[in-house]
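Hey team,

Filing this mostly as a record. A colleague (T.K.) asked me to run one chain through the structure pipeline before their review meeting, and I want the input and output archived in the tracker in case anyone asks later how it was produced. No errors, nothing strange. Just documentation.

Input sequence:
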Amino acid sequence: MPLYKTITVNPTTKVLIWKIEEDLQALAKGVQLTPHCKERVDGMKSDLHRRGFMSVRHLMAALGYVDHDLYYDDHGKPHLRDGKNISITHSFVFSAIVVGDDEVGIDIEMQRSKILKIAHKFTPIEEYRTLANDDAVIRKLTMVWGAKESIYKSFAIKGVSFLQHIYVEDFPLDEPNTTATVEFDGKSQSYHIEFLEFEGFTCAYALILN
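Output structure:
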């Protein structure tokens, strides 16, 4: 079972990361999907997406949950029936969940040069000109994107713009945490962001600051 990493963030919050090495048949063993989720899996064209989806059910099982404990609201945001908060992500060969008493968000991204082409859509690119080289810029842009994506998943209000409404405080690359704020439609919420980098991927997770 390739449970890649478990992080106890605090007494009520855990992050679990899975490295997807099994085929779909192996991942399907012991997993009973709801009719809604089975329909979702059957409709996925990518084998990697199907495997990512199924690997998340194994991460849930590691915390004592089954697929029937999960439901999605009208915005597509996942919830757990026991009242705990959950956020889900998968990218290529990694998937992850964060579960906690408070609102949470998580994102995994592969570090790729293509982010340089879309950076202006989610962050003021001139702020990155002091970084040493393209590799450092790609790393930091991926971290900022992951932070904003994790906040977007937690805040979950339609119409939020990564560029206009979510601000991530600057941070040095060697300090893998920061704070961030989303302000939209008269509502403001601050978050603590933690980053992990592994095997060319970046994981960011967001925790509400009360």
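Quick notes for T.K.: The helical segments are 24-28, 35-42, 47-62, 115-118, 134-155, 162-165. The domain at 3-101 is CATH 3.90.470.20 (Ribosomal Protein L22; Chain A).
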